[in-house]
Design goal:
There is one protein chain. The two termini are 26 Å apart. The chain has five helices and six strands. The chain is of the alpha/beta class.
């Protein structure tokens, strides 16, 4: 598992702000999903085995891999279990355990789930180094056809929130050197 080649199951790579290549544990909190997106292997209508970590299990796994020097960070995504808010609350619990109990200072990239309440996206952004939201499809018609449970507005809202809050955070840091940092590595999408 410590092999840093791209063939390592469960690992991916990113580049830190200073240009270092960082190995990340890339994992889903759960592959259970309430959505039925036609392009997704984890869609609710697909007959596949389902699994889920508890936030405690995932935080423990991450810190154990980190201590063994297998990884330098975490890339956390998830299927939508029950609701976007419920899933995000579980993700927040996991990241809070890592940051606050384990004092994990490694890199964390978290996926913000469209439809999540703004206050939960905010909390996620103060725990993660980078947030991202999947755009899913290039047009609203394609989205309606292939992912009928999702809306363009629900996808774009957290992206705008992350952009705005990140800008505000940078402005606060100019005034107050020790202000909390919101997603300091910014946001991305795919």
């Amino acid at each position: 598992i410590g092999n840093t080649s791209t063939a390592s199951a469960g690992c991916c790579h990113t580049f830190s702000a200073d240009g270092r290549c960082v190995t990340l544990l890339k994992v889903l909190l759960t592959n259970r999903c309430v959505y039925d997106c036609k392009y997704c292997v984890n869609r609710r209508s697909n007959d596949t085995r389902r699994a889920a970590f508890t936030p405690e299990e995932l935080a423990d796994l991450t810190i154990q891999f980190y201590r063994r020097n297998y990884i330098e960070g975490l890339f956390l995504s998830s299927g939508v279990f029950r609701s976007p808010d419920y899933t995000t609350e579980l993700m927040i619990r996991c990241l809070a355990l890592l940051r606050e109990q384990y004092r994990f200072n490694g890199y964390i990239h978290a996926k913000a789930i469209p439809g999540t309440a703004p206050e939960l996206v905010e909390r996620l952004g103060f725990l993660a180094d980078r947030l991202s939201v999947n755009i899913e499809l290039p047009s609203e018609a394609g989205l309606n056809s292939l992912a009928p449970d999702k809306t363009k507005g629900a996808i774009l809202a957290p992206m705008r929130q992350i952009q705005t809050r990140n800008r505000q955070s940078r402005e606060e840091l100019v005034k107050y050197r020790h202000a909390p940092r919101f997603a300091p590595a910014g946001q991305s999408t795919q």
